[in-house]
Amino acid sequence: MRDRLLRWMPSLAWMGVIYALSAQPTLPSLPEPWLDVLIKKSAHALAYGLLAWLYLWALRGNGPASDRLCALSLALAVVYGATDEYHQSFVPGRTPRLLDVLVDGVGATLTMALERWRARARPPAPR
């Protein structure tokens, strides 16, 4: 039981990092608007891809990364992304955006797709 609880610590810590970043009133912008958007959206995708992977790591324990667990990890990451955007609606200078939730979902989806591909490409463990 203790090991199972400990496996959730990295995802909870990462959620805290995301929350803290979202609580910042304004984030610095780059002089080139297209580069600013590219970097911020890439950060969203990477942050939520990592969050989905951390959820998967916590959920699967020592077992395989099944389709069901990948789907659950993806759903949890998207729900957290949506609640994070809602949280931003209370932060002065921040605006919640549906596009950010979609980008979060893309990052989580790509990460879970890579995880499933990796799991299928790995030869089965000897018995």
Write a brief structural summary:
The protein is mainly α.
Provide tags for this entry:
0% strand, 127 residues, globular, single chain, mainly alpha
Describe it for me?
The chain is mainly α and 127 residues long. It has one domain (2-121). It contains five helices and no strands. It is globular, with a radius of gyration of 16 Å.
Helix and strand content put the structural class at: mainly alpha
- Domain count: the total is 1
Distance between the termini: 27 Å
Helical amount:
over 70%
Residue windows where pLDDT falls under 50 for at least 5 positions: none
Query: How many DSSP E strands?
Result: 0
**Oligomeric status:** single chain
What's the structural blueprint in terms of helices and strands?
Blueprint: H1 2-7, H2 9-22, H3 33-60, H4 67-88, H5 98-121
Helix pairs in contact: 2-3, 2-4, 3-4, 3-5, 4-5
